[in-house]
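Researcher: Good morning. I'm working through a list of sequences from a screen, and I'd like to move beyond sequence-only analysis. For each chain I'm collecting a predicted structure so we can compare shapes side by side. This is the next one on the list. No need for commentary yet; just the structure.
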Amino acid sequence: MPQSERSDILKKLLKWLSTKEDGATVQAILQQTKWEITEGGATDNTIKKYIEDLQRASLIEYKHPFWKVTNAGKQWLERHSI
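Model: Good morning. Structure tokens for this chain:
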């Protein structure tokens, strides 16, 4: 997968997650990413790697049982006008 396509998927995932006031479970993230963002073109393992990448960048955090966008993630979205 080209890097620009991967970046677009991560941006869309972060934007979607930011709209979820209470956050989203891993299952909800898997469903949204698989069927809405990648239109069935991503495996569960790939999506889990997306989640790990966003967490490593401190853009999302896990608050059991939900993943939420951090303040840094919100600021990143604002800076990039997404």
